[in-house]
What we know:
Butyryl-CoA Dehydrogenase, subunit A, domain 2, four-stranded mixed beta sheet, globular, Butyryl-CoA Dehydrogenase, subunit A, domain 3, 3 domains, binds flavin-adenine dinucleotide, 10 strands, 12 helices, single chain, Butyryl-Coa Dehydrogenase, subunit A, domain 1, four-stranded antiparallel beta sheet
Amino acid sequence: MLRSDSKELLRKVMARFVDKELIPRAQEIDETAQFPMDMFKRIGKMGVYGIRYPRERGGAGGNTTLYCIICEELARGLMSVAAITAMQCLMGTNFLFHYGNEELHEKYFYPAMRGEKVACFCLTEPEAGSDLGNVSTRATKTDEGYVIDGMKTWVTNGPVADFYTVLCQTDPAKKFKGLNFFFVPADTPGVKVSKPFDLLGTRTTLISEVSFNNVKIPRHHMLGQEGRGLSNLLSILSEIRAMTGALAIGLQRAALDDSIRYAHERVQFGKTIGSYQLIQAKIANMATDLEASKLLVYKATEMIDNKVPCLKEASMAKYFATEAACRAADEATRIFGAYAYSMEYSPQRYYRDNRFLLYGGGTHEILQTNIARWAGL
Ligand SMILES: Cc1cc2nc3c(=O)[nH]c(=O)nc-3n(C[C@H](O)[C@H](O)[C@H](O)COP(=O)(O)OP(=O)(O)OC[C@H]3O[C@@H](n4cnc5c(N)ncnc54)[C@H](O)[C@@H]3O)c2cc1C
């Protein structure tokens, strides 16, 4: 079982795992474009998925800072595995933990904590991306419970998930107040999963459409008090944004470490390329971006852990750290020269995987709009 009493200890345990077990297999896992089930189960056995949940409920009794340290370290190894883990610890299980009854916990939550069941989170629809008010997947109340009809898309883990947390509209007249979350086991009749999408990056994080056709679920599968779906979602939005920032820190560290190593090794014109000031400037910018990202992200996680509202700080953290990750991946591809263009070397993966960070938890155009408003515009 994972111990959560100390940030340093947790970081050490995760770093050892990443260095010994994840980095050596990162390229091979990425090339398969298959869900890394063995890695998923291995991380489950370490007790990682329960990091945010109390010990008496099968968790490790940690907090958001510890969760983000895990995400950061895993992202240093392989973004896909970090993304799957982030989903399992937070969005995929959060609503089940808080609002599922004991029967659902026994059957799904505890096994998910052990890495025996895969979770996912279904918000996005073909016509509802940033605009969640437009969600049209309908949950209709019946005498027995609810019937769900509609289609979700871009569902991370969709092809391999054992259960879905699905945002549905129960009463279009109520608009945002009609949005509610529902728990749907993957084997419920009427649930259909598409073929996995062919992705640019994070290729082992399988993503698909999931459609719901006359899917009947009992009443207690509504997760949360009726009408509070959106406010319950907002209650974890800061955490989602801080987590994405932590993933971005992991990618920046990987790109920086590899770039420094390469700059020490590669000799041109009789000197290592690291001795040239233009290469040094790139390393200096990457290192400074990394430091600033850490300050922003871990300031936000500390605020979350101290229950201080921090949507602004978490949004800035996600925005800055993710843009910095894009810059870091770009610089790594320049420092490696032509070798960055080869699939044998790591920069191409950082260059593809950093795109993953741009969309979830709010696109940067949405974040910039919010930040400008908070700044007084
Ligand atoms: C790898 C990956 C994994 C994902 N996993 C999941 C998942 O597990 N579950 C899930 O529910 N969803 C998931 N998503 C979907 C993700 O949440 C959406 O991509 C995101 O909400 C944005 O929606 P969209 O892509 O439809 O873009 P749109 O909302 O259509 O936006 C398109 C463009 O218009 C801009 N734009 C939109 N509205 C405004 C505005 N008001 N002002 C200025 N610009 C605007 C956007 O910033 C963007 O540049 C995933 C996406 C990706 C790429």
